[in-house]
Amino acid sequence: MNRKHGIDILKQAGYKYTGKREDILHYFEEQDGYRTAKDLLSELRKTYNTISFDTIYRNLHLFVQLDILEETELEGEKHFRIKCVSDHHHHFICRTCGLTKEVHACPMQQVGEELTNFAIENHKFEIYGTCPACIQSQA
């Protein structure tokens, strides 16, 4: 997804367009992986020096609700990224830097075989670890 598509979804859902909301989406559009609200706050304070955590969290949760952003939890803290719109895939997420790599293998066929007679509605599969760059910097 890109920022323009996210703004279109926002407007279609009846929410107001603001420069801050576009800047939030621009931030995530430029990132390669999951980022925290704290990361976003640091970036936006360069332009909006009085922006609050409340404003950040309210918009992050709105964007997740509208399926513009994805969220995951790492080390007890929520992390966010722009929603993927490509083919079905899952993610490897580096616990150190947040880098995200698409993984195209999906375990759902095997899971479906084990859960016969169950109605599976959706799934999310994430792999956590350390990326090559972080492994090298830790060595």
From TrEMBL:
Domain of life, source organism: Bacteria
Gene3D superfamilies xrefs: 3.30.1490.190, Winged helix-like DNA-binding domain superfamily/Winged helix DNA-binding domain
Annotated InterPro entries: FUR, Fur_C, WH-like_DNA-bd_sf, WH_DNA-bd_sf
Similarity section: Belongs to the Fur family.
UniProt KW Signal keyword: no
Location of this chain's protein in the cell: Cytoplasm
Name under which the protein is recorded: Fur family transcriptional regulator
Keyword annotations from UniProtKB, A to Z: Cytoplasm, DNA-binding, Repressor, Transcription, Transcription regulation, Zinc
